[in-house]
Design brief:
This is Phosphonate transport system substrate-binding protein. Belongs to the phosphate/phosphite/phosphonate binding protein family. InterPro entries: PhnD (IPR005770). Pfam families: Phosphonate-bd. The protein is α/β, with parallel strands linked by helices. It folds into 2 domains: 166 residues, Periplasmic binding protein-like II (D-Maltodextrin-Binding Protein, domain 2), CATH 3.40.190; 104 residues, Periplasmic binding protein-like II (D-Maltodextrin-Binding Protein, domain 2, 3-Layer(aba) Sandwich), CATH 3.40.190. Strands 1-3-2-4-13-5-14 form a 7-stranded mixed sheet, with helices on both faces. Helix 3 packs across helix 10. The relative contact order is 0.19.
């Protein structure tokens, strides 16, 4: 049922590498299925991850199938049903997946370059943005305004606004704002703000820096009325039941320097892939209790 909800893009990577140990043969699946949460235009996102697909395909010696997701929930469903082997989730989506299957495990995360809105390293923030030319000067000015969120399973675009921001204003979002809309992605939320379809938007600081890097905005386009504490960046996760030896090999391929790995880092404008564990996302887990 889950796969019918998804469009599938199959990238078969020739992989001449053979593992001599029979244990590898017993461990290897016929293919590895990979996907990621939709954060921007999916065609762009799939292209950005092709170097990673090539890295894993060549390093494992099996085809890698990259699944085009329809939503955050579709990625969680794929992991829980074991139709997906490895995925990129947001912190909140990861905790949601763990609540359904505690064998799902975070193992790595990107480290990013410093930006105007995002510190260097493996952390980002949830930002509440308005157009700089609008009359809003502080968060309280947005009472009764229209706000864009991203996806119900998004950390910076939904969970943090509903918890940390709601605590800061001492009111639930549905009481404070006059209208709320889920845009589907951080980029869609910013586009809605730029087009004046909403008065404000909650988005990831890393996505705002990407818009700035691409020249879609400048440093004076938005005003930040609120920002969260730093949040650990999106985890790469294994599904439950994936062979331990395969997990170890994937982790090695993604964390050890190589030309393919460097090509992926350049593609996603990151500086490193660093190991993580479940404890790194416990602050988000505590917010969701």
């Amino acid at each position: 049922m889950m796969l019918r909800a998804l469009l599938i893009l199959i990238l078969v990577v020739p992989a001449p590498l053979l593992w001599a140990d029979n244990r590898w043969d017993e461990c290897l699946p016929g293919k590895l299925v990979f996907t990621m949460i939709p954060k921007k235009d999916m065609d762009e996102q799939l292209v950005e991850y092709r170097p990673l697909v090539a890295l894993l395909g060549e390093g494992l010696g099996i085809p890698v199938e990259m699944v085009r997701p329809s939503s955050y929930d579709s990625v969680v469903d794929g992991l829980v049903s074991r139709a997906v082997d490895v995925a990129v989730l947001g912190p909140a989506a990861y905790i949601m997946a763990r609540e359904r299957d505690d064998g799902i495990q975070a193992f790595a995360s990107l480290a990013v370059r410093p930006g105007h809105y995002t510190p260097a390293g493996s952390f980002y923030r949830s930002l509440l943005l308005v157009r700089a030319e609008r009359e809003f000067r502080r968060a309280a000015d947005l009472r009764g305004a229209r706000v864009a969120l991203t996806d119900p399973a998004s950390t910076s675009g939904s969970l943090i606004p509903k918890t940390a921001f709601a605590d800061a204003i001492n009111r639930p979002l549905e009481v404070f704002f006059g209208g709320r809309v889920y845009a589907g992605s951080h980029d869609n939320a910013m586009d809605a703000l730029l087009a004046d379809r909403v008065d404000a938007a909650f988005v990831s600081s890393s996505r705002v820096d990407e818009y700035l890097r691409r020249g879609l905005i400048d440093k004076d386009t938005f005003r930040v009325l609120w920002n969260s504490e730093p949040l650990h960046y999106d985890p790469f996760v294994f599904r439950s039941g994936l062979c331990p030896a395969l997990r170890q090999r994937i982790s090695q391929l993604m964390t050890q320097p190589s030309e393919r790995r460097q090509a992926f880092l350049e593609s996603v404008h990151a500086t490193d892939i660093t190991p993580v564990e479940h404890a790194d996302y416990r602050p988000v887990e505590n917010l969701m209790k």
